[in-house]
Amino acid sequence: MKLYTRTGDSGKTSMKGGRVLKDDPHVEAYGTVDELNSFVGIAAAQAASTAATQALAAELVEIQQELFDCGSDLAFAIPAEQHYKVTAEMTERLEQWIDAHTDAAPAIQRFILPGGSELSATLHVCRTVCRRAERRIVTLSSSHPIPAEPLKYMNRLSDYFFAAARAANALLGVPDTEYVRSANVFKTRDKS
Fold it and tell me: What helix, strand, coil percent values describe the chain, rounded to 5?
């Protein structure tokens, strides 16, 4: 099998239901989700390399599978509800992981800078690319009908990456770096 097809040489690509320009809002949305998936792959490899973050690596690989599901759901030129893959249960599981990672990290009062450990820095890159993917999905939704779940999932996923980045630092014994000019913007959480 050859990797090149030459069918995109004129600036068009195939979607489920037709061919579109490569800068079509559908392609921008699922292409940015694909870009995010590549960064998640880097984070998963980093997490897998250290015993303290093995469980985080497994979560990230599951997220990679679900990002493929999101891309698939966004690749329909015409809505096809019976073929959608992203479910509310996926988003609910992200919320459980967010809560667990939040509990694993020290209380936060100020904004923090992306970084600390290399894994945490990569997870912050994932967070910002996820936000961009979310914006691309919103743009797509303003002109085309799309399923609701991928947008909900991506919104929650960016929160996951923030919580996971902080948890990674805690697991690796690396403190977060506070933004020095930040006011106290986060309420102290009650751990009872």
Answer: 60, 5, 30
Q: How confident is the model at residue 21 (pLDDT cuts 50, 70, 90)?
A: low
Q: What's 32's domain CATH number?
A: 1.20.1200.10
Q: Is 189 exposed, middle or buried (0-12, 13-18, 19+ CB in 10 A)?
A: exposed
Report the pLDDT averaged over residues 120-130: 98
Which structural domain range is residue 149 located in? 17-178
- Has residue 13 got a pLDDT over 90? no
The pLDDT of residue 58 is 98
Q: Are 90 and 118 in contact (CB under 8 A)?
A: no
> What is the phi/psi pair of residue 155, to 5°?
-60, -45
Residue 59 lies in a domain: yes
- Find where tokens 């061919």 sit: 19
Helix (H, G, I), strand (E, B) or coil at 47: helix
Alpha carbon distance 67, 46 (integer Å): 19
Are 32 and 126 in contact by the 8 Å Cβ rule? The answer is no
Count of structural domains within the chain: 1
Question: Where is average pLDDT lowest: 27-36, 92-101, 176-185?
Answer: 176-185
HSE-CB of 15 using CA atoms within 13 angstroms: 26
